[in-house]
Amino acid sequence: MWNPIIVIIVMNLVREFTAVPSHSSCQENSCTNPVLMPLTDDVNASLVAKLDMSDINRQLKTFIESAIENRMEEHRETIKDEFSKNTTELLQLLAEEKAARLNESRSLSELKSELQSPRMQQRNVVSSLEQRNRDQLLLSSQVNTVFDRTASNESKVGFTVCVHANAAKIDGGSQILFDSVRSNYGVDVSSLNTSGNFTCTKSGLYLTSATIRSETNSAYFAIYQNDYAIVYGYTAEQDKTDTFEHSGTIQCVISLSQGDVISVKPWKTIEVNAWSCLTVVMVK
């Protein structure tokens, strides 16, 4: 059972905090006016209690301010925690979004690389084939050059044959025999040692030169194509005191066909000595 006196005190405290009388002298944190409370005793005699509420007011105010501050602090901590939690979640979402975009970028890069890889392989194959074609063309050119040189060497015709030693006298109209081959390109000159004739095997334009060295006075001779004398020559004419050997040289250009015969013949009987020579070369 509540004590009536305590109930009355609490009610007056509430009234004190909810309304301040106009005649109150409360300043800042203290009120000097006492609180008047009507009381009755056991015989219902009227009594008046005069209470000083200044200390209670200060304590209640301090308690209320402390309670409000604590409540505000709790709200601040709650707000701070919620803000930190939301910030963390937002940063995590941003990080996940960034990672997703990075993975997407990597996927696109890998896909691009995979797409480019066959292209690069195709380019490498094409480049390799082009290089191989260039190598084949170069090799073909080199082979053709070798063949051309071989053909050119095979197409070359020319020789120089001479008389090796002093020969017996050669009758007029007889072929002079040349037994010493000094040079030979692409022809058979063995018949010049046996018959004194050169038979053409490759048609063309030939330069022919004959040099006769002899002690015979005015030793006349000629270059013949088949039985026709093309050009004539002779050695120097001797006088009674001059018996030395003399030489004479003649040259001509002849168009020969396959089977034509070249030979050197004297007009009269002459003595043919060493280093009498015949040179034939195809110029075209």
UniProtKB/TrEMBL annotation:
It comes from the Eukaryota. Coiled coil: none annotated. Pfam families: C1q (PF00386). Residues 159-262 form the C1q domain. The keyword Nucleus does not apply. InterPro entries: C1q_dom, Tumour_necrosis_fac-like_dom. Residues 1-19 form the signal peptide. Keywords: Signal. This is C1q domain-containing protein. It comes from Mytilus edulis.
